[in-house]
Amino acid sequence: MSQYSIAVLAGDGIGPEIMQEADKVLSAVAERFGITLNRKAFPVGGYAIDNHGEALPATTLVGCEQADAILFGSIGGPKWDTLPLEQRPERAALLTLRSHFDLFSNLRPARIYPGLESLSPLREDIAKSGVDVLVVRELTSGIYFGQPKGREGQGDEEFAFDTMRYSRREIQRIAVAAFEAAQKRKGKVTSVDKANVLMTSRLWREVTEAVANDYPDVSLEHIYIDNATMQVMKNPAQFDVLLCSNLFGDIISDECAMMTGSMGLLPSASMNEDGFGLFEPAGGSAPDIAGQGIANPIAQILSAAMMLRYSLNQTAPADAIEQAVIATLEAGVVTAELLPASEQHRAASTSEVGDEVVRQL
Amino acid sequence: MSQYSIAVLAGDGIGPEIMQEADKVLSAVAERFGITLNRKAFPVGGYAIDNHGEALPATTLVGCEQADAILFGSIGGPKWDTLPLEQRPERAALLTLRSHFDLFSNLRPARIYPGLESLSPLREDIAKSGVDVLVVRELTSGIYFGQPKGREGQGDEEFAFDTMRYSRREIQRIAVAAFEAAQKRKGKVTSVDKANVLMTSRLWREVTEAVANDYPDVSLEHIYIDNATMQVMKNPAQFDVLLCSNLFGDIISDECAMMTGSMGLLPSASMNEDGFGLFEPAGGSAPDIAGQGIANPIAQILSAAMMLRYSLNQTAPADAIEQAVIATLEAGVVTAELLPASEQHRAASTSEVGDEVVRQL
Lengths: 361, 361
Ligand SMILES: CC(C)[C@H](C(=O)O)[C@@H](O)C(=O)O
Ligand SMILES: CC(C)[C@H](C(=O)O)[C@@H](O)C(=O)O
What we know:
Helix content of chain A: 40-55%
Largest interface: A-B, 63 and 63 residues
Number of strands of chain A: 12
Oligomer: homodimer
Bound molecules: 3-isopropylmalic acid
Number of helices of chain A: 12
Strand content of chain A: 15-25%
């Protein structure tokens, strides 16, 4: 019997509540498919700062190292925003995990589900045009990690600096991830850069073009980041896979998430070359609605499905979860933010949504 | 009598056609307000490459130096896209002009005009919520110009790098520009950064907070660039002035422009500390529609109005042009892209729009 161990890092804000629902769903698929999913919880983020003095305690890191995958909730909140940059949850935990495990390949799907078009901030005809984008974002290099990074000088001439840096190898492996993904989708990669200004973008373009030669069945286009933010708004259905550097991917993936109008439905995967990964919802920790039982657990549940698919190679359970989620949406068992004002009375709670996904399984 | 000299750089694509209409309008206001606007045309961009061997010939630069302001059309096109980065129109002409004249302060207004809401790619209720944003973008520093910038190494480990760099002084002067602008508008500055990742953004935040102390009547908020691209889509009416670094301003100003759905209406100003400036439409050179007499000249005409207002201190003629443009829009004398499919037959040509603005003056 297949056995896996999963490090569960629920974190802050709505993290713990939505993680509980993903946990229910994992128990249900484990039973149905006869696999063992050993889950072990570890502290992370603001919660870990408050209880263990740092955002990523050593025990948590070791727990992750011993696991086959990390299921991550969400971290951060106003309480920890005044800490020095290096100690804050986002940097100290999330960026450290990404870099420690070399999780260079970040997949962020964004689609507008049929029936949920009216949630999109886009004009109806655009929202209904069949939007289904996968942002493939490089996650362990670029201006996030490039050295040198610092501050120098005095008075008015004091200056700060960050380095955007990409090697051929780094670009190559993320480009390969994008082309592989496109092969299983609509066969189109749009690479986002700023090659009219940045040297890193020039190299990015060169390498993606070289990689494209190995994928004759996938088309490649290039688009400037400024134009990309426009096109995502004007005609998002033109895109299949958007291949981005770390910073541009941060920006574009959030724009794509918002375009769906249903952030609470969007999962993400961050993986390394061995298939080990961290799986987390696209939305944040939403401290404003935490603890009220109204947060949407679907993004967390779909993150668990991505984990099964990509890190554990368990395709059937992953498919089953995704189908159960679609059935849950179709049955109208959804949290308040997915409903129009006139239908708020029939909003389901966080745990009711989780229960329904389990029932649909 | 007030006398000014203006360097006119029409450039490529639709540049020359729309410039011709701005020229008509300038002649008309000059006569009406009794000012002399001496205009002198200079080659720039792809046109200059083809005819003079470089995108910014020395005579053009000298012509700009001798003028009180630069009225710029648009440059670039597929024909020159394969040139090395340093020789391409955008970099060799536009970025060189910005840096040569220290045009650090870039103002990019974006509003959704009443009656034109249906052009916006945003949902109707959002498009009608009263969108009127001014992006204030730093234009001569940041990752566009930071050193070192280059390429090193061999094989797979070859890498490229760009430097994002900001000094206190550079941040201060653009922050002042944003607060000054906000004082004349709704009194709200939203500063866009990525302070959870970038050292330059940390300094950016510090300096804008210090500058804010001098403007007690203006409020200051900070937003991360990824969240900003989401908020511009979800609720653009919340913004008044968006203060951005060079790269983030490039991205956000284009998103704001697209959000209006009427790029052909948007002017921009790029100024230095002496009030000298370059004024150009927000849209590009649109080679696909060039030479057909269908391009919208309004953005170029409004750029001329900004020039009168900001560089020449001629408020009354600037107001008059802006009012004439509004009257022209209200009269429905507009180019095809502003009309729904069913009304394309009544589209005005480029020169008909220019003539109407002159008539309304
Ligand atoms: C929290 C922050 C550092 C992070 C990032 O910029 O990568 C977040 O925005 C994300 O996209 O996961
Ligand atoms: C052409 C390009 C270099 C330029 C920029 O990025 O600044 C353009 O996009 C702009 O915004 O004026």
